[in-house]
Amino acid sequence: MTGTLYGLGVGPGDPELLTLKALRLLRACPVVAYPAPDTGQSFARSIASGYLSAEQTEYPIVVPMRIERFPAQDIYDVAARDLSRVLQDGQDVAVLCEGDPFFYGSFMYLYERLAGRFPCEIVPGVSSVMAGAAALGRPLAARNDVLTVIPGPLPDSEISDRLAAADAVAIIKIGRHFKRIRTLLEREGLTGSAGYLERISLAQERILPLAEAEGSAPYFSMILVYKGAENWITNLPVESSQIAANVSERAS
Amino acid sequence: MTGTLYGLGVGPGDPELLTLKALRLLRACPVVAYPAPDTGQSFARSIASGYLSAEQTEYPIVVPMRIERFPAQDIYDVAARDLSRVLQDGQDVAVLCEGDPFFYGSFMYLYERLAGRFPCEIVPGVSSVMAGAAALGRPLAARNDVLTVIPGPLPDSEISDRLAAADAVAIIKIGRHFKRIRTLLEREGLTGSAGYLERISLAQERILPLAEAEGSAPYFSMILVYKGAENWITNLPVESSQIAANVSERAS
User: Fold this and answer.
1) Entry pTM
2) Shortest Cα distance from B218 to chain A (angstroms)?
3) Over residues A134-141, mean pLDDT
């Protein structure tokens, strides 16, 4: 009897946004793994820390921040080897995944190494994109809108093409690409209908109209763009120019 | 003191995929509203039914199935008027939303009528798209993939254009459009890399390679398409042709 590998979505940051299923399985697993930077806290662990017990064995998968966007595959080779021993011993392993495990998550690097050899179960989680729309107080997509999720690291030309073809857009992984993407959206005339969000659902959450967002952005930041006459925004009582008002209310 | 309107995401179907926050607020609200068909059960209510108490007042928002895709706005005018009385009396109202409240949900029709007049809080939920990828055992999007969510009711030409521009694709609201979309994907040579899913996370869940999916599809069905050399599927130990194998394992 080998153990089962669980990929648990722990949501965007608020520990209360874990699902009942993720919490049950997290508490039941003797071994808990999670991605961790070489310096500082693991975000995934910080979300679930209140649910961990001293009896559980923790296994941080240390991914140096500087290569986070281009993970060194040997890190996951080592982690998969270590965790496969645990699974081989018949112990279940919970892997904590920020947001949803299969939505741009690093869990896939473990999954692709272990899925063929051990039973795996993925518990979907609340993604930062849905949490972002909730925090902004504006529907992400409605009716027959096409929703496009665009990673910020893509080149300008590609982002522009995707923007042109979409109704609702979430640009994720903004981080060091913030200034470039902000300039791009300004050029496209979309600044007024875009909201900037960082640390969604956490105490340090920041939500601003893109026009008011300045300086640098953390890796886990996002821009939601609401465009197109067919888009829901035209059906709301408030205009997109009033995102600012909503935001200041939230801030007060 | 007026009451607060809560839009609670109850997830794709499995009651255990509610978040801790949604459950807490659901139990705390004296009034619980949800969309309901004119005949048969409310799906949103069925997901949360185990958490409801006899002390709570239920308010079904009856939307005839035949117009579900083009909701009659007067239905929401009436519901908003009724619920605004409750909120005016200082009672909190929980609105149960399948999946995530702001991801193609009908909650927005209430929200756009009440958000300006009463405090509102949206609790994001697990969307069927994330749950679908988890059920299929295949990451939805990875690295710098562009993820596009396409509503099935859109015309062929538009769906084809969006397919051409995307890396990962979720086609939702398949329902009566199933045969047309299946033919379209066949024409695009994508049948082999597409999975068909219905009633995700429920006991009656059906997951099949698109090539094996036949007959009619319920409204809450979905097709996930994995295309493009840049896409994650090339990095998994199993090939897309083996979705069938995964599926039969799941079925057994």
Assistant:
1) 0.90
2) 17
3) 89
pLDDT in tens, A163-172: 988 889 999 9
Residues of B in contact with A116 (CB under 8 A): 237-238
Taking contacts as CB-CB distances below 8 angstroms, the residues of chain B near A242 are none
> For residue B153, what pLDDT band results from cuts at 50, 70 and 90?
very high
Closest-CA residue of chain B to A138: B102
Q: Which residue of B has its CA nearest to A126?
A: B126
Q: Determine the Cα–Cα distance for residues A11 and B115; give it in Å rounded to an integer.
A: 25
Residue numbers in A near B11 (CB within 8 A) = 19
Instruction: Report the alpha-carbon distance of residue A160 to residue A158 in Å, rounded.
Output: 5
pLDDT at B62: 92
Helix (H, G, I), strand (E, B) or coil at A49: helix
Cα separation of A31 and A118, whole Å?
Answer: 15
Q: Which residues of A touch B143 (CB under 8 A)?
A: 104, 151
Q: What is the pLDDT of residues B123-132, one digit of tens each?
A: 999 999 999 9
Query: Facing residues of A32 across strands?
Result: A58, A94
Which residues pair with residue A172 across a beta bridge? A151
From the list B168, B137, B138, the residue with the least C-alpha distance to B150 is: B168
For residue B71, give how far its alpha carbon lies from the nearest alpha carbon of chain A (Å).
Answer: 10
Contacts of B81 (CB under 8 A, 6+ apart): none
**What rounded mean pLDDT belongs to chain A?**
87
Both tokens assigned to B182: 């299946």
pLDDT of A86-117, one tens digit each? 999 999 999 999 999 999 989 999 998 999 89
Q: Do B151 and A165 touch (CB under 8 A)?
A: no
Domains of chain A: 5-123 (3.40.1010.10), 128-226 (3.30.950.10)
User: Measured between CB atoms, which of A124, A158, A236 is closest to B112?
Assistant: A236
Q: What is the pLDDT of residue A67?
A: 56
Min Cα distance A40 → chain B (Å) is: 23
Query: How many interchain CB pairs under 8 A, A with B?
Result: 196
Amino acid (1-letter code) at residue B75 = I
